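Can anyone check this?
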Amino acid sequence: MVQGNQTDLGGSRGRFRSMLSRRGVMTAAIASAAVALSRMSSTPKVEATAGDPITISGNVSTAGGTTVINRVAASNAAGVLVLNSFGDAINAISSTSIGVSALGIAYGVLGASSTVNGVGVYGQINGQTVGQGVLGSSPGAIGVWGNSGSNIGVIGSSQGNHGIYGGALAAGASGVFGTSTSAAGAGVSGTNVSGIGVIATSTSSAGLFATSGSNTAVIGRSTTGKAAEFFGDVEITGNFTASGMKSAAVKVADGSVRRMYCLESPVSFFEDMGSGQVTGGHGSVTLDPMFLSTVSTDDYQVYLTPEGDCRGLFVESKSPNGFTVSELMGGTSTVKFSWRVVAKRTGITNERFAPVSMSLDPKGGPKPAATREFEIPALPVSPTHTEGGPR
C-alpha cells in the first residue's frame, strides 16, 4: 500500500508539472498576441470615406526612414492607384530632397493622359530661378527620351529664355543632335515668324558646320529677299559656280555703291601686267616667278601698248621666263610701253566650255531641292499648382 501511495503521489506530481508547462505556453502566447495587438494599435492607419483627402505624414527620427506601401501581386495591377476627377492625383512635396522617387524594372515613372492637351508627366519649380522642373539622368543610357507615333516627340517652351537647351562635355559630342530618315524631313529645323530661324555661334571655332555625303551641304533660299549674306571674308575650297553675274560692290564719287562686273572666259586664265622700255628699238621683260608658278608657260599671250611715238612694237620671242620686244620695220626708237600677259591657270582641269550640272528655273536661278513646311505646334496647357503643399 505504501508503495502504491508513493506511486499515486508521483503520478499526481507529474500531472501537476504538465499543467504548469501548458499554462506557461499559453501565457507566452497571450503575451505575444498582446504585443502584436499593441504594435498594431500603435501603427498609424490611413482611412478615409468617399470625398475625404488622404494624407500620409509623420516624423521619422532616422535619416533612412521610409514610409512603404507594399503590394505583391502576380498580375500587372498597380501597387498604388490614385484617382482624382478634378485635381492632382498625387502631389508630392519635399522641403529638402526629392518629392517622388520611383524605381521600376521597366518604368520608374509612367505618366499618361487621355485628354486633349493633357500632360502625362508634369514637373514644376515654384518660386525659384535655379532648378529643373523635370530632370532626366543616366550614367550610361539616355537621360530623357521623347517619342510620338505621329506627332512631336519633345516640345520645349519658355516665356523668358531658351525653349530647349542642350550641352555636351565629351569630345566630339553635340549639344543638340537631330536626325531624320525621311527624304522630306530635316535633322534639325528652326522656324520663326519674324526673326531668325536658326542661330549658330562659337567663341573659338566654326559657328555652323554642314556636311553631306553625296548632296548639297547647305541650301539657302529666299522668295523675295537674299538667299545668303556674309559679313567678313569668305573662303571656298573647290569650284564656285553662279548662274547670275559676279560683281564687286564699289563706292563711287557721289557716295553711292555700284556694281563692277567680272570678265568671263571659256577657260580659266590668270593675267599679269606691267611696263617696260625699248632702247634703240629693242627691249625685254622678265615675268614674276610667283606668277609663272601659277600658269602654264607653254603658250601665253602678250599684249603691248607703246607709250610714245614709234613705228610700232611687236613680241619678237617668248620663253618660260619672259619675252623680248622690238620696234617694227627695224626702228631704233627709245620708248616706254605697257604690257599685259594672259596665261591658262595650271593645276586644274581647264576644259573649254566645261558642262555644269545645274537645273535652272525660268527666273534663271538654281532650283533647290524640295523643302518641307513646318507648323508651330500648340503648346499643352500647364496645370496650376499651389505652392507649399497639396491642395
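Reply from J.R.: I decoded it. The mean pLDDT is 76.
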